[in-house]
C-alpha cells in the first residue's frame, strides 16, 4: 500500500517551462486535472509531497493551494529529503512512490517502492521506473499516476509500464 506520493515539480507537475518576466518574477503552468488527482490521494489518506530542486514561489503557492502534506522547495539532495520524510512519518520505502522526469530524480525513482516516470521523462528515468505514465509532465501524468496508486491501494489489478 502506498502511503506517500512524492514528486519533482519542474517537468513532472509542470511541462518544464518557466516564464520569466525580466524583473525577477516567475510563472508556471499547472494542470487542474493533476491537482484533482492530488486531492483524490489526500482524501484517501495518502500523504503528498513536492520535492523541487530549485526554489520557486509558484511551487509554494501551488502546494499551499492544494494543501499538500509537505513542500520542499530548493532541495539539494532529493533522496535525503525523501528518506528523512519517510523516516519521520514511519513510512517504509515500499510504501512510498516517487514521480520524476529527469536525471536528478533517478535515485528517488529507484529508491521508492513505486518509481514513476512521466510520459516524456528522460530515458534514464523511464528505465528506472516501475510505472511510466502515458501523459507527459504537466499534462495529466500526475493524475494518471494518482489513479494508478489509488487502484493499487484498492487491490485492483494493474498493468506496469
Automatic annotation (TrEMBL):
Belongs to the KdsC family. Homotetramer. This is HAD family hydrolase. GO terms for molecular function: hydrolase activity, acting on ester bonds; metal ion binding; N-acylneuraminate cytidylyltransferase activity. Mg(2+) binds at residues 8, 101. InterPro entries: CMP-NeuNAc_synthase, HAD-like_sf, HAD_sf, KdsC_fam. The keyword Metal-binding applies. It comes from Synergistes jonesii. Keywords: Hydrolase, Magnesium, Metal-binding. It comes from the Bacteria. SUPFAM superfamilies: HAD-like (SSF56784). Pfam families: Hydrolase_3 (PF08282). Its cofactor is Mg(2+). Substrate binds at residue 10. The keyword Metal-binding applies.
Amino acid at each position: 500500500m502506498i502511503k506517500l506520493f512524492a514528486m519533482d515539480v519542474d517537468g513532472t507537475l509542470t511541462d518544464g517551462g518557466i516564464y520569466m518576466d525580466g524583473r525577477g518574477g516567475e510563472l508556471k503552468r499547472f494542470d487542474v486535472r493533476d491537482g484533482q488527482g492530488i486531492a483524490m490521494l489526500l482524501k484517501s489518506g495518502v500523504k503528498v509531497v513536492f520535492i523541487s530542486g530549485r526554489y520557486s514561489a509558484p511551487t509554494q503557492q501551488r502546494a499551499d493551494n492544494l494543501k499538500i502534506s509537505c513542500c520542499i522547495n530548493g532541495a539539494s539532495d532529493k533522496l535525503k529529503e525523501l528518506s528523512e520524510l519517510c523516516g519521520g512519518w514511519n513510512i517504509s520505502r515500499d510504501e512510498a512512490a516517487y514521480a520524476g522526469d529527469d536525471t536528478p530524480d533517478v535515485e528517488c525513482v529507484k529508491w521508492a517502492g513505486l518509481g514513476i516516470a512521466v510520459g516524456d521523462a528522460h530515458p534514464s528515468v523511464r528505465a528506472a521506473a516501475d510505472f511510466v505514465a502515458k501523459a507527459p509532465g504537466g499534462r495529466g501524468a500526475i493524475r494518471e499516476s494518482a489513479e494508478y496508486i489509488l487502484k493499487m491501494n484498492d487491490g485492483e489489478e494493474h498493468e506496469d509500464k
